[in-house]
Amino acid sequence: MEQSKNIFEHGSTWLRADFHLHTKADKEFKYEGEENDFCSEYVQRLTDQEIGIGVITNHNKFDKSEFVALKKKTRKNGVGLFPGVEFSLKEGIHILIVFDDEWYQGETDSISRFLENAFYGVSNYDRPKYPNSNFSLKETVEALDKIGFDYFLVLAHIDDTNGLFTELRGRTLEDFVKQESFNKVLAAQKSAKLENYNSLCTWLDYKIACVEGSDNAHAGIEGIGSSKRVTYMKVGDFSFEALKYALTDHEYRVRPKEKPEVKNSYIKSIVFEGGLLDGKSISFSPELNNFIGIRGSGKSSILEILRYTLGISLNSQTSDYQYKNGLVEHVIRSGGKIILYLVNEHEEEYRIEKIYGQKENIYKNEVLQHNISIDAFFKRPVYFGQKDLSNKESDFEADLIHRLIGSKLKSIKAEIKNKQNEIEHTILEINKLKDLAEVKTSAEKTIIDNEHKLKTYAEQGVEQKLKQQTEFESDKGRLKQYEAKLEFFANDLQELASQSLTFESELKGSELTKEEYDLANQLIKDFIQQTQKLSKISVDTTKIYERFQAVLSKIHKKEESLKEEFAKIKREINLPTLSPDNFLNLNRQIQTAKMKLKEVEKSEAKKKILNDTLNQKLTELNDLWLKEYRQLEAEVNKINSAETKLTIEIKFKGNREKFIDKLKQISKGANIYKTTYPEICERYVDFVEIFRNPTPLEGLLNQNQFVDFQRRFHENLSELLTYKVENEVTIKYNGKPLKDHSLGQRASALILFLLAQKENDVLIIDQPEDDLDNQTIYRDVIQEIRNLKGEMQFIFATHNANIPVLGDSEKVIACDYIENEEIDLQIGTIDDHQIQKRIVDVMEGGTRAFNLRKQIYNIWNVEE
């Protein structure tokens, strides 16, 4: 029992089905092994042939004890076995009757009782050549219905001996198919001739399921699964109802030839540690998953936890922002941990472990993956919380685009961010040089004033006596200044030489790139040889620097020896109005001012280069913004090529409202008229254009406004020059802007639009039906979901029974919130009886309401 549950751990699954199996209870079955080994060998053959669903259909015979033994064994091996018979109709046609387990359970074997009645008076009816029974199709159905347990019929080998198209011809065949009893026939076996199958469907006015079966009793156990023609069925439980429904819904649940494969990446499972979900886990289907429950049952909480763990952040456009974040904290709680398993498009499995409030850890094959994000291995799902589909915020359109294709723009956005950082750094460097004019004026004034004061010393004849000391101090100052430059450069050179030691001596590549790697390694060797020269250069320059320091030491010694001589000169100058120290100080100030002028000259040259660099980087930033727009445009064109009723239009830097808001923000208090902002916006595309050409702005503002605006502009220069005027995004539905439609129309258009985006692997929506009518859900949404299974994973929380039931949900999770204790989960497939009961209770108002509504619908005459 435990094994069979594991088969459906991830919901309804595709299994190979064999509707025509024989056993040793059949007279034609060949078996020479030990009696006690038969069941084990039989089940092992089913397992080896990957047959997950089997119907035992011996000729006009049912062996209860054998079947019970086989069924018990197959259940342990994860195979669903069903009772049946290959039955000979009076018309000579063989049919397969598939029975519910109730037919043989209990004291009475109703299958054998039915066969005895059908062949009353006919001897050896379970032996070749298998005589016809006393019952026509009509009489067979009547006899089976009289017993009262559930069953269905399959036409056996319809193109071969004892098949429908060999035993009946012309009008007789068509009349046979059109009789009311034929409604019990759910499938045809071995339908190899397309012409025959098409005729059958034409007479029925609907398509009938096609199934396969081994039908090879003569080959014994080796004949099981030997047919090259195979059938796959999707079921969520080994119950008769699941098998019957799969044939009824054969367009989506039955496949010939090959087992359908999941093509999309998907969320495999989630495990909770701590909080209200402590110890619980949910395994997801790669296809349709539905959380159900009354309001406040915890459905939304689990979806929000999924969003949180996947790193899908809420933004300003999200409805109930605080509430949704609060749900996560309330359920996970402090110290709570989530473990999420993901399978990517390459079928690689990753595990994300996230403790609430901390950064996630990502594992692959039990190895922690350092410094990678989820985007490195998994396309983030498209997520919409409650009411998000009907959101009418002004930025909703741009936000939708970001959700759909934001990950594809990550590379260009990183380039843009780097360029913005470069611009901010360049402006910072320019700002360091902003007072050059004042420094220059101050230095020039110092030189003029001090040179005027020194004229007095020349007129008194003492200039020459003091000049020697002045020149000496000037000489010493220049050497000191140059020493600092040498020290700085020598240190840099030493650091550069040390960095060269970090280069790898050899890189290892695969055989595929051996030739290129050999060449690369030779170049690395040459490069390292050259960098090794840096070490010698660094040592040599350090020695030179040390010798330069020795020269400076000599200057200091000479200064000591000249002190007395300079002091003697000062004593000889005996003029009370002229101070020798003041003379020296004035010369020092002149020297310093001249040095400042030289630095200003260099800085002005540097500032010019920086301004040129800034303009270049602004051009590069604009080019990157344009490149991002082109990429966005290409993705939008892909989306529009899906030819849905919903289309997207984008315009480069077209969001003028946001631009005006930014203008108002920086101009607050500048007394600029409201009517002026649109004029500025019309004249300039962004702040870079204002920076480069402010002249037209003078015509839009008065003098005071212009001066004030310029001051504010330059105070916020870094922010404004890197500010991106967003692209304008307009979503239209049936040619009309989406924002002008009703909430229901918006939600309908958007969900259909999301389903049309084939590149999105996972779609998570909390209560998509909130703004959708049932007609749209059934006619459009559910139909598209069913078509997309295997290409997209859906995880919905819903109150609407149409989505899990008509959508044939592979996995259903029923939630119950127990106040401040836990969120109880009941998990199963749509074929699970307990899940079906929960759907009726939660979504239909209970069994009584469900049955009453069914009675009313049966009374209503709504046929067109």
Q: Which features would summarize this protein structure in a list?
A:
single chain; 9-stranded mixed beta sheet; 864 residues; 29 helices; 15% strand; 6-stranded antiparallel beta sheet; elongated
Q: What is this structure's SSE topology?
A:
Layout lengths: L1 H6 L5 E9 L16 H11 L2 E9 L4 H13 L3 E9 L5 E6 L10 H9 L18 H11 L3 E5 L8 H4 L2 H9 L6 E5 L4 H11 L4 E3 L19 E5 L4 H9 L1 H4 E3 L9 E8 L7 E3 L4 E5 L6 H11 L11 H12 L4 E7 L5 E7 L5 E4 L2 E2 L13 E3 L11 H10 L4 H23 L3 H24 L3 H37 L14 H59 L7 H61 L5 E6 L4 H11 L9 H8 L3 H6 L2 H6 L2 H13 L1 H5 L6 E6 L2 E2 L5 H13 L6 E5 L7 H15 L4 E5 L4 H5 L4 E8 L3 E7 L4 H11 L3 H13 L5
Parallel strand pairs: 1-2, 2-3, 5-6, 6-7, 12-22, 12-23, 17-21, 21-22
Antiparallel strand pairs: 1-8, 3-4, 4-5, 8-9, 10-11, 10-13, 13-14, 14-15, 15-16, 18-19, 19-20, 23-24
Task: Please explain how this structure is put together.
- The structure is a single chain.
- The protein has 864 residues and is of the alpha/beta class.
- The protein has 29 helices and 24 strands.
- The strands form 4 sheets. A 9-stranded mixed sheet has the order 7-6-5-4-3-2-1-8-9, with helices on both faces.
- Mean pLDDT is 87; it is low at 1-5.
Spatial strand arrangement across the major sheet? 7-6-5-4-3-2-1-8-9
Q: Outline the low-pLDDT stretches.
A: 1-5
Radius of gyration: 43 Å
Helix content: 40-55%
Number of strands: 24
Q: State the major sheet.
A: 9 strands, mixed
Overall pLDDT, averaged? 87
Structural class: alpha/beta
In terms of DSSP E residues, the strand content is: 15-25%
Instruction: Calculate the terminal CA-CA distance, rounded to whole Å.
Output: 48 Å
- Counted by DSSP, the helix tally is 29
Shape: elongated
